[in-house]
Design brief:
Length: 231
């Protein structure tokens, strides 16, 4: 079985005549270390699929497997633990805490995980250096550019060492040059063995993926779209 897999995944919203299908029988397989872009028109189910993969939206029916575990068939506490240990999320909105520095923002997941203060600072500092922000450790979000804020968000995603990154329009608020740098970082992470599934409307971002899957009306099209410039 693939590292990430769905089987006949359905998600419906509403009831009766107002019922709307978010996902309509999605079968998707992503191998360990693969970088997959999800594309398609607005309302096609991309974000619903992404959040279902991350254990955040319980499907109406069907299965989601992470490394062989059917994540909606295990207790909620176990699913939360799996999510914290294996999955990092990267969103279009950075969700940084405005009164904390870059270093402190990245320390938050480590604090929640119970790491001691010395470990929090060392790991967060090294992770920020990894994304090119070693000289911005003590700057608050308002003192950073939009691109730098997204790098802080990426560092926070990476700080607990996830094997999977789920990214929802990670460059939606960025200028083209900054978006390109984030695209390059995600490609580098996939080369390091991290599995990446990314929702995007940006064809330049999709081109960096190893494979592009198109969703239309809650369904994955039969044939994947080839990435034009896989890295």
């Amino acid at each position: 079985m693939a590292y990430i897999a769905t089987q006949a995944l359905h998600k419906t919203y509403g009831r009766g005549k107002k019922e709307v299908a978010g996902l309509a029988g999605v079968d998707l397989a992503v191998e360990r270390g693969e970088y997959v872009a999800l594309v398609g028109p607005s309302g096609s189910g991309k974000t619903t699929l992404l959040l279902s993969l991350g254990g955040l939206i319980h499907p109406t029916s069907g299965k989601v497997f992470i490394d062989g575990t059917s994540i909606y068939d295990i207790p909620r506490a176990a699913r939360i633990g799996l999510r914290r240990s294996m999955i990092g999320f990267l969103f279009q909105s950075f969700n940084l805490i405005p009164y904390l520095t870059a270093l402190e923002n990245v320390e938050v997941p480590l604090m929640i995980a119970g790491r001691n203060c010395a470990d929090q600072e060392a790991i967060a500092s090294n992770t920020l250096k990894r994304v090119g922000l070693g000289d911005r450790l003590h700057h608050k979000p308002s003192e950073l550019s939009i691109g730098q804020q997204q790098r802080v968000a990426l560092a926070r995603t990476l700080v607990h060492g996830p094997s999977i990154i789920l990214a929802d329009e990670p460059t939606g608020n960025l200028d083209p040059a900054t978006a390109q740098s984030v695209a390059e970082m995600l490609a580098d992470l996939s080369h390091d063995g991290i599995t990446i599934v990314m929702v995007t409307h940006d064809p330049r971002m999709a081109q960096r993926a190893m494979r592009v899957e198109e969703l239309v009306e809650g369904r994955v099209m039969q044939q994947p779209v080839p990435a034009l410039a896989a890295s």
